[in-house]
Amino acid sequence: MAVNWVFVGASTIAGQYLVGAVRAQQDNDVRWVISGSAGRAAAFAATHGIARCGTDLAEALADPAVGAVYISSTNEKHHGQAMAAIAAAKHVLCEKPLATAVADAQDMVRAAETAGVVFATNHHLRSAGSLRAIRDLIAAGRVGKILSLRVFHAVELPVHLRGWRLDNPAAGGGVIADLTVHNADTVRFLLGEDPVSVVAHMDATGMGRGVEDSAMSVWAMPSGTMVFSHESFTHPFAASGVEVHGTEGSILARNVLSQDPVGEIDLITAQGTARIEFDRCAIYQSVVRNFCAAVTGTQKPAASGRDGVKSLQIATAVRDAARTGRRQAVMYGETA
Predict the structure, then answer these.
(1) Any alpha helices (H) in 281-331, and if so which ranges?
(2) Which residues contact 101 (CB under 8 A, 6 or more apart)?
(3) Residue environment code for 237-256, b if the CB has 16+ CB neighbours within 10 A, otherwise e
(4) Per-residue pLDDT tens for 50-99?
(5) For the segment 278-291, what is each residue's pLDDT rounded down to a tens digit?
(6) pTM of the full predicted structure?
């Protein structure tokens, strides 16, 4: 299906990954880029060969040739921009977290459902061949009953991203908003269940100014599986990954929590260690291809708006647990 896109936010991720991912789909192109800075929008448009640019989202949304909107602005802007796009009857792919407040994220999802447009969360890791392979191993019973899962997403924040994430709580800065939401969706995707309560600790360990740059949390799952989640911006020599431990084996996956299709997966059982191969197709191309299929009604987006709400609800519980020093029940209530 031919789709012209508006990019809201001239972000690094938009430039490095999403422009190419959109153009990899047949008859899809980026028609507009909108930014809070006219100069930044113009530079982004020139770099990526985008015909139209500016600061007026309403002007771009009024373009009848536009069918979809990708939002990668700072987190506090997502709600207003998404609601405007939905009101204009455009399909929306929104970066995580969907909003800085759960109620705003729920508002966005309800509005999209009422308007009959696709609203998806860019939890890109669901589309990684590595995580799909891990989920398949779990589903096939290769490690037996799952006893515990560890997600380690403690890395060093790249220099070009060291802006509002490190010093602007109002914009949704901090490692919990940036990475705990990713870990939450990863765990939900792999295990097919939602945590019921969490305990947590967070701190500023060298980069954060007014926001946390490191967090650890332990989650109780309905099945009894124990989950440990570790996120940081300050670990220059660490590798990301996932460990799944069961009664019949373990899965050790390193460097798989990435924007690129990289990493290694080992399955360890009584028979020894086996390297698991996986699909290494471009992750964001898969995200956009799936989104376009959802627009045609042939399938659902890889991560729906409701998935985005749940990951935000879990991250919110982690932050509340860290702030209070007390276990927090994850309050799902009405998911959207």
Answers:
(1) 283-296, 305-324
(2) 79
(3) eeebbbbbbbeebbbbbbeb
(4) 999 999 999 999 999 999 999 999 999 999 999 999 999 999 999 999 99
(5) 999 999 999 999 99
(6) 0.95
